[in-house]
Structure formats: C-alpha cells, structure tokens
Design brief:
With 230 residues, the chain is an alpha+beta fold. It has 2 domains: 50 residues; 171 residues, no CATH class. Strands 1, 3, 5, 6, 7, 8, 10, 12 and 13 form a 9-stranded mixed β-sheet that branches. The protein has a two-stranded antiparallel sheet with strand order 2-11. A two-stranded antiparallel ribbon has the order 4-9. The relative contact order is 0.19.
Length: 230
C-alpha cells in the first residue's frame, strides 16, 4: 500500500509541475500578445498624428466626419498651396506677435505677420458655417471686411491689397474671398489664415492643433505640422 501511495504521489507531483510550467508559458504568451498589441496601437496612433488625421483617431462627432482635411501649407515660402505672393519670410518660424508691432496688417515681406493655408472639403449633405478657427488655442475670426473681393497680396491692405486682416481668416474659392462663412455641401475651399498680434510665434517642425468651430457642440479637429506642406 505504501508503494502505491508513493507511486500516486509521484504522479500528482509530476502533474502539478507540468501544470505549473503550462501556466507560466501561458502567462508569458499573454504578456507577449499584450506588448505586441500595445506597440501596434502606438504605431497607428502616432501615424495618424503625423498624417494630420487627429480627427479620425480621436473623435467621432458629426462635424469631424463631414469635414475632410485635404492639405495644408505652413512653410516659410512665397507660395502656399500654389497660391503665390504670400511671401512668408525665411526666418525659421511662423511669425506672429513678434513681427506685428507697428505693422499690424502688412504683408510678411513688409514686416507683417505670416500666413497659413489649409484646404478642406465639406463631405456632409448640408452646408457648414465656419464660425472661427483655433490654432493652438488662439482664435481667428472670419474677416467680413474682405468678403467678395479677389485676393490681392501684391500690395498692403492700406495700399489697395485684399487679404485677411491681422488675426483673421478668409475662405477662398478660385482666389475669390467668400461673401460669407458658408461652405456648401461637396465644396472644397482654402482657408487663408493670417497670424496676429495675439498669436505667439510658431517654430518650424512643431505640431499645430487645429479646431474648426462649425457651431456644433464639438469642433472638427486636426493636427498639422509647422514648416511643412501635405
């Protein structure tokens, strides 16, 4: 009887050891899958931020779904999204408050603040009304003073030019600045934003969080990169 008991005890001991090893292997495999999943998720989230599709990654509201970011241009360049004569200065930054003292509404070439261009499309079935744009929590309003006029960035505003005033934006379609802040269903427009005296300078290669306030509870959100074009 003792021999049988010892025999059965040995079997139980071996079975317990096998189960213990199996549990350890299962735990290690589960940890490996968790780490792999987290790494993959981090990759896709980071990739969405780089590509400018923060709205897709972080929000599911109706406004975000209806507005598509088609492109942007935040370079130190004279041409932004094929729009010439904007003449952002080659100063390694998007100049805001540091270059508006005494030159509020002038062109960048003449010491005024610089421009940012964003191209969007309204994919919704209804018109949207762009109440304001926020760049890194700084608000820019629609400039009614230049509504319905052809864009003119050859001259300063005081000399007959026509472009958004300091700290405002205009909505462009075929180089004509819209008569209102409406963007119709299916319409593609360019948003021309002029940094202002309340806009801190933006260094190049930095993220710019963009909020398009359309009158809904939640704005459309995007992340773009300064000093870049996409």
């Amino acid at each position: 009887m003792n021999n049988n008991f010892n025999h059965h005890s040995g079997k139980k001991s071996k079975t317990c050891k096998r189960r213990g090893v199996t549990d350890i292997i299962s735990t290690m495999l589960l940890m490996g899958l968790t780490v792999t999943g987290a790494t993959t998720l981090t990759y896709f989230v980071n990739d969405s931020f780089v590509s400018g599709n923060l709205a897709t990654a972080a929000s599911t509201n109706t406004a975000t779904k209806s507005v598509q970011l088609l492109g942007y241009d935040t370079r130190d360049a004279s041409t932004l999204l094929q729009l010439s004569n904007l003449d952002n200065k080659l100063d390694q930054k998007l100049c805001g408050d540091s270059c508006t003292v005494g030159f509020s509404d002038k062109l960048p070439l003449n010491g005024g603040s610089e421009f940012i261009m964003i191209k969007i499309k309204n994919n919704g079935i209804n018109s949207i009304f762009l109440e304001n744009i926020q760049l890194n929590n700084i608000s820019y309003t629609w400039d009614s003073q230049v509504s319905g006029t052809a864009l003119n960035t050859v001259q300063n505003l005081s000399s007959g030019g026509s472009y958004p005033h300091d700290g405002t934006f205009s909505i462009l379609s075929d180089n004509i600045q819209s008569t209102n802040n409406e963007i119709q269903s299916g319409q593609t427009v360019d948003l021309l934003i002029k940094l202002g005296s309340n806009s801190p300078d933006i260094l190049l290669n930095k993220g710019i969080r963009v909020f398009l306030n359309l009158g809904d509870m939640y704005p459309a959100e995007f992340l773009i990169e300064s000093g870049n074009a996409r």
